[in-house]
Specification:
The complex is a heterodimer. Chain A is mainly α. Chain A has four helices and no strands. In chain A, helix 2 runs antiparallel to helix 4. The chains are: A mainly alpha, B mainly alpha.
């Protein structure tokens, strides 16, 4: 039992989706968090101008909206790249019949 | 026409393609060519307007707000010229890809349009985050266009490229947000004005952005994925990556150095020269044509990066030098990749097939001369100014490395030329591909046109207007004439030039003039004995005599060197010349 689950884990770690796709989406999410965090200012509110925050006092009360706009764009781009990588993984699987990375020796740097 | 259409037309065309039916391949292809022709026309009209001085640099404001509160794009002369280069390369590659695009359908066409549009965006934008967006659009469309290749290895190469690009984009985003934090702006020109930006955290943030953009350049040795793309992608797409993407990214580095300033200029030069020498060394060992071209692209991009780092000492000559090397490389590399699509097998020796077609051989010689920077091409004028500026500033180590790299490059390119003219012809060039030949010969015309333009722009004489060189080139269109007729013309030319020049000669020049020009005519008399057309003999011999004739009267270092080069090239061709040069077709 233990040996079997061990070999399962090796397979999973060798799998394309584990190695690259998860890595890149985790890293992307991390970067997006950093972006939002940089724009955050203590004690201020969301950059939405309505009855709660008047336009005149917005500059003193809201956090910097630019990083949030950037994150929004970065997320969209990240989804595009991830989708393209999945398409590549699919094509690779169709041509080779496997996604085991140890079978893709030509992918070594 | 507003330059915003350079972006809008590409987007509009791509969306239009999305609305068409899958079966309407011809309509989709017409939209693709139409958009690329339209954007090339806009760029060309701006190049003419800006070069003639009838308009000044255009700022395109978006969202109705001035920068730094909104993204702005800029179109000056340099931007317009590069956008023209990219869109023309895109248009010619689209022509070249006709069969492939018809097979793949409108989606592939839309990706090609987005690719061209994104590259124009990289060149025109003045906003750091917008630059990131256009880079990512380039990455995504590159990932799509790599799949146009039928080579199975292209899949692996494309996946590797996407992984590398993900890492690059993460570095870039983190860098951008901290540069923004330090400067309070995303506008490149505003950042350049912020004093103290590059201390502590700001310096690290800028380092991340800079290194990310340099990694996009695929410099040596961080370029394994790029070489796989150059080797396995469709040659028309490799042409685009080498000529268009490389050029756009170099321009982005140039913009970033506005923020970085002096110390980062040195970093750029250091990375550039390592890439130039290293990639050229590796290119020496290549036998696969497309991989060799890949290494050569990496090397040439390194060379331009070195030049970009020397901006401060080049002063007003910067555009002449950087532009000369950059455009010569782009045209030559696009031409060579397109030419490689006409060669059946991938070994360098298979290029001997070019001998079955004198025009193809001429195209190959043009591209190789453009790459090496032989006169009368732009690289010659550019390197002349560069070497003088560097020697004047005492940057001798960098100069030495530059000359060493250039020597290796000339070495492997001449070896390749040797294969072409000496090896047996195994394959023949496919005759059916008219559109592919149009692309190749457009690059030949562009190369000679740039040679003329750079001759006019350079502070020295225009070599393409020197009568001896023109006379030697005249033999190229006359190659179909019988050898004896050409021999008579050559003798007449040598004697006529002596007759016209001798009143100006001083006694010493007169002696050499008589020996070389009259003596040359006498030697050629013997050639009346030889039958046949003697293809390749007369252009080479007359180029040698042109060099000699110009050497006699050379008064400054530039004319001496230009004459010397012309003499050397002519003699080199003559030593390799044999009646087998052009095989009977």
């Amino acid at each position: 039992g233990a040996a079997e689950s061990g070999s399962d884990q090796v397979d999973r770690a060798h799998h394309f989706s584990s190695v690259y796709l998860e890595m890149s989406s985790v890293a992307n999410t991390g970067v997006n968090l950093v972006l939002v965090a940089v724009g955050y200012m203590n004690g201020r509110t969301a950059p939405i101008l309505d009855e709660a925050v008047a336009a005149a006092e917005a500059a003193q009360r809201i956090i910097d909206p630019v990083p949030q706009a950037l994150v929004l764009t970065a997320i969209v781009i990240g989804v595009g790249v991830t989708a393209l990588m999945l398409a590549y993984a699919y094509r690779l699987f169709k041509t080779r019949g496997t996604l085991d990375i140890s079978r893709y020796t030509e992918l070594k740097w | 026409m507003s330059p915003i259409y350079l972006i809008a037309a590409g987007l509009g065309g791509a969306f239009t393609l999305g609305l068409l039916r899958d079966q309407w391949r011809a309509a989709g292809y017409a939209v693709t060519l139409g958009v690329l022709a339209f954007t090339s026309w806009i760029a060309a009209s701006w190049v003419i307007t800006l070069a003639s001085g009838s308009a000044s640099t255009v700022e395109i404001i978006t969202a109705g707000t001035q920068p730094p509160f909104a993204v702005n794009l800029r179109l000056g002369l340099a931007e317009a010229a590069l956008v023209l280069l990219m869109n023309l390369t895109g248009l010619l590659s689209a022509l070249y890809l006709k069969d492939t695009l018809f097979k793949q359908g409108r989606r592939a066409m839309a990706v090609l349009l987005i690719f061209s549009m994104a590259l124009s965006g990289i060149v025109m934008t003045r906003d750091l985050f917008n630059l990131f967006v256009f880079f990512e659009l380039t990455v995504i469309s590159t990932g799509g266009l790599i799949l146009l290749s039928r080579d199975e290895r292209a899949l692996g190469a494309g996946f590797k490229y996407l992984v590398a690009s993900q890492v690059v984009s993460i570095l870039m985003l983190v860098g951008i947000i901290f540069v923004y934090h330090a400067s309070g702006s995303l506008n490149i020109d505003s950042m350049a004005g912020v004093s103290g930006l590059l201390v502590k955290g700001g310096a690290l943030a800028f380092f991340l952005v800079f290194i990310a953009v340099v990694a996009e350049l695929k410099v040596f040795p961080a370029n394994g994925w790029a070489l796989d793309i150059y080797e396995s992608a469709h040659p028309a797409f490799s042409a685009l990556v080498s000529a268009a993407t490389g050029t756009a990214t170099l321009f982005a580095v140039d913009k970033l150095l506005l923020i970085g300033g002096g110390p980062w200029m040195q970093v750029a030069s250091a990375i550039g020269i390592v890439s130039f020498v290293g990639a050229n060394l590796f290119a020496l060992a290549q036998q696969n044509d497309r991989r060799l071209l890949g290494y050569s692209s990496v090397a040439q991009i390194g060379l331009v990066l070195t030049v970009v780092g020397q901006k401060e000492i080049l002063g007003d000559d910067y555009l002449l030098v950087a532009g000369g090397v950059l455009l010569a490389h782009a045209v030559a590399k696009a031409g060579l990749y397109w030419l490689s699509g006409l060669i059946v097998s991938r070994d360098l020796t298979a290029w001997s097939a070019l001998r079955t077609n004198p025009l193809m051989l001429f195209a190959f010689v043009t591209f190789v001369a453009l790459l090496i920077g032989l006169p009368p091409f732009p690289g010659f004028y550019a390197k002349w100014e560069l070497v003088h500026a560097m020697a004047g500033e005492g940057r001798l180590l960098l100069l030495g490395l530059l000359l060493f790299g250039a020597l290796i490059e000339a070495g492997y390119l001449f070896r390749w030329f040797g294969y072409v003219i000496k090896r047996d012809v195994v394959d023949t060039v496919p005759a059916r591909s008219v559109v592919k030949r149009i692309a190749v010969f457009s690059a030949v015309v562009a190369g000679w046109g740039l040679g003329y333009l750079w001759g006019e722009l350079s502070p020295h004489s225009n070599l393409l207007l020197a009568p001896p060189i023109l006379f030697a080139l005249l033999f190229l269109p006359l190659e179909w004439l019988p050898g004896r007729l050409k021999n008579g013309l050559a003798i007449a030319g040598l004697l006529a030039w002596f007759w016209l020049s001798y009143p100006e000669y001083d006694p010493l020049q007169l002696i050499f003039g008589a020996i070389i020009l009259v003596g040359g005519a006498l030697i050629l008399l013997a050639s009346f004995q030889t039958p046949g057309r003697r293809l390749g003999f007369y252009p080479s011999a007359m180029l040698m005599y042109a060099g000699l004739a110009m050497l006699i009267v050379a008064e400054d270092a530039f004319s001496f060197f230009a004459a010397w080069e012309s003499l050397t090239i002519g003699s080199y061709f003559l030593t390799t010349w044999s009646s087998r040069w052009v095989a009977p077709s």
